[in-house]
Protein: 3-hydroxybutyrate dehydrogenase
Organism: Paracoccus aerius
Amino acid sequence: MFQKFLAGKTAVVTGSNSGIGLGIAHRLAAAGADVVLNSFTDRDEDHALAERLSREYGVTARYIKADMSKGQECRALITQAGRCDILVNNAGIQHVAAIQDFPVEKWDAIIAINLTSAFHTTAAALPLMRGAGWGRIINVASAHGLTASAYKSAYVAAKHGIVGFSKVTALETAKEPITCNALCPGYVLTPLVEAQIPDTMKEYGLSREEVIQKVMLERQPSKDFVTVEQLGDTTVFLCSDAAAQITGTAISVDGGWTAL
């Protein structure tokens, strides 16, 4: 879809050894960017992912381990990357429980990984972007950054926070060639979501299609999943010159969810 207009740029994508993050990394590499993949593990298969990206797209791709629940490691990720023209804050986890039953350690972990990590990586990346004279920050929020669901208090709070943090970052960089936007996906068909379907079928006695339409996509008017490729292409667009004046926005890719 895109020419290699990002050649010479380096993109750091947090939480990118699977799912949305990996999908975004593929599209950025296809557009010519060198890519730094990240997660909290340090397995041979993590580094193999980076090697495959290098071979497939002819870019430099590396994998750097960093635990996004730890501020020092978030900042060290950017330092080890050496360059960060494009920062995609994607790392995230989820837990579902009523507020009175919500485990404190789960709340703390979700806020740390889904929200606070973006503060640390952004703080470390902005000096590099300013030094290079260009930068793009894309924070992966959610439809839950704009609306809410019961039993997801920590996730909704973190994603609303990411939208607000994106606006502040945009205002602080408004007179510079740096933009910051929040990407707000609806339900995305990732390997993690795919793996939930059989258990949900069994629990409710539903067919696969019924689980998808009546459970997973109940609030998504299009009744179709968002794809990681669509999110990747939206990210690449936000890195283009056409998007140079798009900053401080929450961009919904949610099949109409937040239009309701």
User: Anything to note?
Assistant: Helices lie at 19-30, 44-57, 71-81, 104-132, 153-172, 191-204, 208-216, 228-238. The first strand starts at residue 10 and ends at 13. The chain has eight helices and seven strands.
